[in-house]
Design goal:
mainly beta, nine-stranded antiparallel β-sheet, four-stranded mixed β-sheet, globular
Length: about 200
């Protein structure tokens, strides 16, 4: 059983909105989009707890063109791990997308998706998830193999977000990075009255 992590969010601002947890990974490249991993509504003076573990998955969704604001709702999620089941093929069979051939790839620590020649352009998206929800997505393309080497950074923001929403993280201004020190598995994220963050 993997270790459980948590973030305790406290809304001390005067605003109603949604606390949004997302992941960023500077090593993934500009074509990889961050998704709103978790988003929960909160009134002033309320607290919310987010919990997850480091269980990875492969995910895909029929998104159309993958642009900020689109909601990625996974149609399939297959469990994956960095050392064993880390290679999968994304295909279209009988006019329906599916994953197939989940196996152990040659590169440990990398989650790989093989997209075969049946995949049309700008119709679906594929990516990876953690703890049952999508974290990163890429526009699906035929005959293009994708490598994800996760080094996740955890971020929190507050506003109008939906779980699975494609984010333009360069445009998010009111955000805070949450870093877990070795041996620490729970952190507090407090949105203050002046809309600044206290992370502890």
């Amino acid at each position: 059983m993997s270790t459980k992590y948590s973030i305790n969010f406290e809304n001390n601002s005067t605003n109603y909105g949604k606390a949004c947890i997302y992941q960023a990974d500077p090593q993934m490249g500009p074509y990889v989009m961050s998704l709103a991993w978790f988003a929960k509504p909160a009134h002033p003076t309320t607290s919310i707890r987010f919990e997850w573990n480091l269980d990875y998955s492969f995910v895909w969704a029929e998104t159309g063109e993958l642009v900020p604001g689109v909601v990625f709702e996974a149609s399939q999620a297959w469990e994956a791990d960095l050392l064993g089941k880390n290679l999968v093929t994304f295909t279209m069979d009988k006019d329906a997308y599916t994953f197939t051939d989940l196996t152990k790839g040659e590169n440990k620590g990398v989650l790989q998706i093989i997209q075969d020649s049946s995949i049309p352009l700008k119709h679906a998206s594929v990516g990876i998830g953690m703890s049952g929800a999508g974290t990163f997505a890429v526009q699906a393309q035929p005959n293009l193999n994708l490598d994800f080497t996760p080094h996740p950074e955890y971020w929190i923001t507050f506003g109008d977000y939906e779980s699975g929403e494609v984010l333009d993280i360069t445009q998010i201004t009111n955000k805070a990075k949450i870093e877990f020190a070795p041996g620490v598995y729970s952190m507090d994220a407090i949105l203050n009255e002046d809309n600044t963050w206290t992370i502890r």
